């Protein structure tokens, strides 16, 4: 009898918890600025963390908490239930899709695009025919450019390889190259350090969607976050957050598709 009463009490407690509260425990690297990092007060900050704060605002009963964890332990942390959501620029792989639940829609895109100096107004790579484009050696940006040029033999473009990004940006400033291929966010960080203003082209080589990640046993939680994310996207609030962090030029990639 005592066991039955105990089970009933536990069931009621769980039911009340589900009805009146949704504990959203988020795991983030919090060492990857500007996406997820700790501010001077030790608070979880950055774009990814603010996305979760935005989504939580659509769920009145939600409580939000953040756990900082090294990147190499972020998936094991999710598996061991230290938290229930990962928001840390996570992209899809076959292995991850087999093991986890991804949000139905992406909330961000990692971009590999054409970048030049301020006021260059380059709209297409064809405008650089006969010129030089710089890339970081061994990067996915270098591969994207190499693959594109192989499939477009009519273009006479020299690829210049750099071991360090600051040197790549410095040569762009000195006009030793006409443009570079990189992620605009990373490129701007390097450019700001050298007082350089960049022009981000809408021409891109790769757009990789970024998702929220959940365990397979968190289907209910994933569904609630999917509902909130859908509303935030439709109302333009995710876009506003992208503009706040990365500028209007980057926000165009949320909807832009390759021609």
TrEMBL record:
Q: Which Pfam families match?
A: SBP_bac_3 (PF00497)
| Residues in Solute-binding protein family 3/N-terminal domain copies | 23-249
Tell me which SMART domains the record gives: PBPb
Keyword list (alphabetical) reads: Signal
TM segment ranges: none
SUPFAM superfamilies the record matches: Periplasmic binding protein-like II
- Domain of life of the organism encoding this protein: Bacteria
Q: Which residues form a coiled coil?
A: none
Q: What InterPro entries does the database record attribute to this sequence?
A: Solute-binding_3/MltF_N (IPR001638)
The answer to keyword Signal applying to this record is yes
User: What is the recorded name of this protein?
Assistant: L-cystine-binding protein tcyA
- List the source organism: Helicobacter marmotae
């Amino acid at each position: 009898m005592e066991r039955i009463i105990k089970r009933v009490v536990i069931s009621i407690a769980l039911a009340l918890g589900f009805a009146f509260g949704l504990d959203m425990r988020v795991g983030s690297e919090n060492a990857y600025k500007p996406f997820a990092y700790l501010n001077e007060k030790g608070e979880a900050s950055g774009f990814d963390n603010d996305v979760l704060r935005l989504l939580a605002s659509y769920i009145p009963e939600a409580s939000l908490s953040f756990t900082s964890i090294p990147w190499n332990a972020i998936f094991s942390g999710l598996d061991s239930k230290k938290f229930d959501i990962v928001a840390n620029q996570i992209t899809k792989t076959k292995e991850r899709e087999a093991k986890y639940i991804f949000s139905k829609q992406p909330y961000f895109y990692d971009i590999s695009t054409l970048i030049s100096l301020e006021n260059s107004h380059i709209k297409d790579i064809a405008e650089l025919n006969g010129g030089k484009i710089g890339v970081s050696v061994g990067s996915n940006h270098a591969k994207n450019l190499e693959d594109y040029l192989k499939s477009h033999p009519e273009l006479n473009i020299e690829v210049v390889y750099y071991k360090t990004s600051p040197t790549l940006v410095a040569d762009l400033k000195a006009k030793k190259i006409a443009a570079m291929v990189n992620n605009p966010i990373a490129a701007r960080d390097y450019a700001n350090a050298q007082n350089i203003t960049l022009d981000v082209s809408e021409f891109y080589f790769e757009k990789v969607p970024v998702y929220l990640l959940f365990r397979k046993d968190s289907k209910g939680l994933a569904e609630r976050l999917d509902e909130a994310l859908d509303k935030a996207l439709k109302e333009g609030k995710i876009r506003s957050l992208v503009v706040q962090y990365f500028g209007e030029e980057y926000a165009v990639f949320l909807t832009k598709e390759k021609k």
